[in-house]
Write a structure and sequence with these properties.
Helices cover 20% and strands 25% of the residues. The protein has 171 residues and is of the alpha+beta class.
């Protein structure tokens, strides 16, 4: 990028030097024009400001899997009132997570077993009940995310609900 700017500046100086004029110079000197051109070329575009941590929230929880060990997981927080979602990749045998940068709102959370996401665990009432046979409520738990707050104990651990009861893994 710097090479391109110097090339443009060099061409501008060359054109200015080669231009012959019998008219008196303008009120700006060649040096002032070069300085203004250089300042314009090197000015940086304003950067997008990332969201301030106090404007977003987080969720955290424990990870599980219905077998020995925990495979890598794709943990996804689906915003209930939109098509928006946030995701986090975990490592093999990672037993906990924290997902930051979520806009305040209500979310449903799913952990997809990688690589294909055909088996998933979700954060729901059946899991909170202890996955006992006597538990009859398997409704989603609405996870409330607030700005500047980490919502704990969001554990996507119901691996027994069936794929028809959670959204397909985002591509």
């Amino acid at each position: 990028m710097k090479k391109l700017m110097f090339l443009i500046m060099g061409l501008a100086l060359l054109l200015a030097a080669c231009a012959s004029s019998t008219e008196p110079p303008d009120s700006q000197s060649l040096d002032e024009i070069v300085q203004a051109t250089f300042a314009a070329l090197t000015a940086q575009a304003p950067q997008a400001t990332p969201p301030v941590a106090s404007e977003t929230g987080s969720i955290s929880g424990s990870l599980s899997y219905p077998s020995e060990g925990i495979p890598p997981l794709l943990v996804v927080a689906f915003r209930v009132d939109s098509d928006e979602f946030y995701w986090l990749l975990t490592a093999q045998n990672q037993s906990g997570y924290q997902m930051d940068g979520l806009k305040p709102g209500t979310y449903h959370v799913v952990a997809y077993a990688l690589p294909d996401g055909k088996l998933a665990g979700r954060h729901d009432q059946f899991y909170l009940c202890g996955l006992h046979q006597g538990c009859t409520d398997s409704n989603w738990v609405d996870v409330q995310v607030q700005a500047g707050v980490v919502t704990p104990n969001v554990d996507p651990g119901n691996w027994y609900i069936g794929s028809e009861n959670y959204p397909p893994m985002p591509a």
